[in-house]
Amino acid sequence: MTALRGSLPAMRRCFGTGILAGLLCMPVAWAVNLDGIWRNNTPQPFLVPDGSAIPFTTAGQKAYEDNKATLARGDYDDYDHVKSRCASPGLPRIMLTAERIEIFQRPQLLLMAFEWNRVRRTITLPGLPTQSTDFAGANAKLVGTAMGTSEGHWEGDTLVVSSTNFSANTLLDELVPHGYDLKITERIRLKNSKTLEDRISVEDPVFFTRPWGSTLTYQRQPDAIIREDTCLDKLRGPPPLPTR
Amino acid sequence: MPKKYLLGWALPVAMALLVAESGAWAHHSFAMYDETKTLHAQATIKEFLWGAPHSSVSLVVMNDDGTTQTMTLQGAAPTTIVRQGFTPRDFHAGMKVEVSWHPLLDGRPGGALMGLKLEDGRIYLDNTFGTPAG
Amino acid sequence: MISTAGYSRPLLSLLRRAATIAALVVSSGVTFAQVQSTVEAPDTGPPRLDGLTTGPYGLSTGPGGGLDQQIRLNGNVRSPGPLPADAPPPSADPRSFDGSWFGEQYLDAFEIKNDAYGNYVPFNEAGRKVMDQRLLANDSHRPYITPSVVCRSSGAPRDIIRVRFVIFQSKDKIDLISNANRTWWQIALNPALALPAGTKSYTGRSVGHWDGDTLVVETTGFRNRLYLSFRGTPLSPNGKLTERIRKVHENRWFLEVVTTVEDTTFYSRPWSYVRTYAWRPDYAILNEYNCDEQAGNPSSDPTAGFQPEPNDNY
């Protein structure tokens, strides 16, 4: 496990759930550390819903069937820019990756760097200093992104992450559609020192009649330099750049 | 050749390019656009992509002879578009717009977006080619 | 006729640069020997290609207007502004670079006109030719395709200019993750983690070690000809970069990076340049950089208006 360094305040463990969440916090050296490299050893291209089938609305079902028909025709660019352009899979689809995920955890911020095409997502945590940005601040609510905007907090051993502000250009997995009003909630924890669990909850009232969930698990990998991955090199071939 | 209209609203914007972070410009050169020429056309939006460091819009444009051609125009960073009160929900495939742009110097379809006029009358002016510095 | 008029330079600028660099060198304890000392006499180098001279800001200008247009349209870049009131300082550990930073140079990083000691960049004939052809392509409004144009990583030297990046550091490796081109610069401090020798990538293969409180990073294995500046100070794929990085407090906290370039393809000797990166804990959130969605669009060509840079242009 990589060691943590840096000047940010020591990690705290907070107790309490529901309205008491975080009421009692104390600095502890043994707080949960998700740092490290992880891989889903049984990846799948589709979110498998916990329990029953995905609860589509009429509009959601139609969009889903349209995507299936387009997939059958091979017209990827009409609905899946990951396949046709190497665009960011966005959240939660990126969590289905078969490649490695490296988590960098600090007391006030967590960043996941993905081996697949070097995409990344940032989860802010309580206490992050004031951020100065033209884009990711108030204006983020106006312009959605593939990964959305993620805010997290600790509830005991579990990192609870709420993500909103999504673009409407992505899919939840290789087929399931969503819109601008998507909200993803994740409960991320260590099941044991070698297993990471991400319980994902999906809400989008335009496409689904109620929230629904799916659970993914990852196995700890050895520390490593992650090999550079460039999806467009595979999709379009080497770029027209001089090699001498 | 795209059909040309004289559109009085598509005037150069007297706004300086103010970016703290090297957004659209340092990403790559914009020298390949003809800053001295502005083309206008009626078009249908195929796709409007919001992204760093710059946005892009793909349009189907009506030519003088009635044929159509697709071209992609590069635009400003999302912050610029948002500051004028537009969000991604304002642009969607199939929208009819009036578009103005600086064409590519090599004559290929494409260019730098200057402005879009929506059917509801709202106008987006791209400040990629702002006023000179100093 | 090839002009050499562009080699005149303001003495004050030279003295100012030399004094600044000398102060940094003395305060860091880095000796001239460690920074691959250069000769102190002006190095006129090979002559410029036709029409290129030195213009405003000490940057190249040419007859085509493209270079001037680039400066005109980039002249109003504003300062990031002061840190917010609640901005914490970086770690007190001089060996911790953890946190978020922002490249301070902008126009200064368009070209590298002088090395760290105020001497001319020691281009050899091939290097001068490649650099000037990159400039002339821009000037003639047919710029070369760069990695950014096709949504590839430019490598860390270029992809941390005037953008925010975050550093995550452990005893075994350092990860620098930049906004630009989704560059992920990984430096192996534990040699066992280093990628196999001979690995080639856009970002290169980097191995680092500590020299006191200075991190020394050696990078080789670039798959393409690199851009060390926006306008194209070149590094051949055979080149090597040695970067000496230390954390400094002088009116503000910043990282000082002294980069030594060793590349016999394009330069007559090793040489060094310096850039600084401000501590910006208010820039911790990286913006999404989803350029593939545009560059990979099968209905459009991201290289429209550009031309490919020849492999054999020297």
Considering the chains and any ligands shown, give keywords for the structure:
heterotrimer, A: 244 residues, mainly beta, Lipocalin, nine-stranded mixed beta barrel, two-stranded antiparallel sheet, 3 helices, 11% helix, globular, C: 314 residues, alpha+beta, nine-stranded mixed barrel, 16% helix, disordered N terminus
Compute the number of structural domains of chain A. Answer: 1
Number of strands of chain A: 11
N-C termini distance of chain C: 19 Å
Major beta sheet, strand line-up of chain A:
3-4-5-6-7-8-9-10-11
Detailed description of the structure:
The complex is a heterotrimer of chains A (244), B (134) and C (314). Chain A has 244 residues and is mainly β. Chain A has a single domain (35-42, 54-222), classed as Lipocalin (Beta Barrel), CATH 2.40.128. Chain A contains 3 helices and 11 strands; from the N terminus they run E-E-E-H-H-E-E-E-E-E-E-E-E-H. Chain A is globular. In chain B, strands 1-2-3-5-4 form a 5-stranded mixed barrel. Chain B is mainly β. Chain C has 314 residues and is α+β, with helices and mostly antiparallel strands. Chain C is 16% helix and 23% strand. Chain C has helices at 11-28, 66-74, 125-139, 156-159, 292-295; strands spanning 53-54, 60-61, 99-103, 164-169, 173-178, 184-188, 205-211, 214-220, 226-227, 234-235, 240-249, 253-262, 271-279. Residues 1-43 of chain C have low confidence and may be disordered. The chains are: A mainly beta (244), B mainly beta (134), C alpha+beta (314). Chains in contact: A-B, A-C, B-C. Chains A and C meet through helix 2, strand 4, strand 5, strand 6 and helix 3 of A and strand 4, strand 5, strand 6 and helix 5 of C.
